[in-house]
């Protein structure tokens, strides 16, 4: 909501009412100002970890942001200045930690994607959450409000998302219910996943520790939660020479 303050201003004996807006969205009226601010927040926190300067980092990050913005607007998603501040705040929180938390990274990415709003309403077909308007998600091919469901509760409808360590399992007859994810030693498949702190190799096993072999981030445990693609080893994401740092202007 835009709040306005009416101020009395005198001009040679005449009195005029002037409307002043304090809308936070006006700080970032367009994608250029938004991407400038986003790049600065990213680089102030992470440039040193990537062994690069803030200027070099910003020179890499702003064009990347503008490119993403162009893709979003090209897909009929509109820039929403009013929610830019939420993205920038989460970006600051994520990168100022120096060792970004994967959960915070997911939250930041979601907040920043939502700066470019979709226009599809509930029940319209979709392929991505960000095609949907507001806080709607794309689930089972349709835009819907997200509703968390406990174990043994139905999850057939669009928007019905199972709680942590549960997944939506087909129990026959076209009906799906939230079921517990598998424990260590249990048989697993892409459709029958392990608990969140385990990985699937045909059976559920512990995630990989620092320096261990990996293929994707999901293989890695909390101490080193990223799979560095140049080495296929689990490590922290932002270290000089890593694939991630190169996207931030690092060597």
TrEMBL record:
Keywords in alphabetical order: Signal
Signal peptide span: 1-24
Name of the protein: Dickkopf N-terminal cysteine-rich domain-containing protein
Source organism, top-level taxon: Bacteria
Signal among keywords: yes
């Amino acid at each position: 909501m835009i709040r306005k303050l009416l101020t009395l201003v005198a001009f040679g004996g005449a009195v005029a009412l002037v409307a002043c807006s304090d809308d936070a969205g006006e700080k970032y009226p367009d994608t250029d100002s938004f991407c400038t601010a986003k790049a600065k927040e990213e680089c102030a926190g992470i440039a040193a970890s990537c062994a690069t300067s803030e200027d070099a980092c910003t020179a890499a990050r702003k064009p990347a942001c503008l490119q993403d913005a162009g893709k979003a607007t090209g897909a009929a998603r509109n820039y929403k200045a009013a929610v830019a501040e939420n993205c920038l705040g989460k970006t600051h929180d994520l990168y100022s930690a120096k060792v970004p938390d994967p959960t915070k990274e997911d939250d930041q990415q979601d907040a920043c994607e939502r700066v470019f709003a979709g226009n599809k309403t509930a029940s319209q077909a979709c392929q991505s959450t960000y095609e949907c308007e507001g806080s709607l998600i794309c689930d089972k091919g349709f835009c819907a409000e997200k509703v968390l469901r406990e174990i043994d509760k139905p999850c057939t409808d669009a928007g019905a998302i199972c709680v942590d360590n549960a997944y939506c399992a087909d129990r026959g007859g076209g009906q799906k219910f939230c079921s517990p994810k598998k424990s260590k030693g249990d048989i697993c498949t892409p459709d029958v996943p392990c608990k969140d702190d385990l990985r699937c190799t045909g059976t559920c096993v512990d995630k990989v520790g620092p320096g261990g072999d990996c293929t994707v981030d999901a293989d890695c445990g909390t101490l080193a939660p990223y799979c560095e693609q140049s080495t296929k080893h689990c490590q922290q994401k932002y270290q000089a020479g890593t694939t991630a740092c190169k996207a931030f202007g690092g060597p």
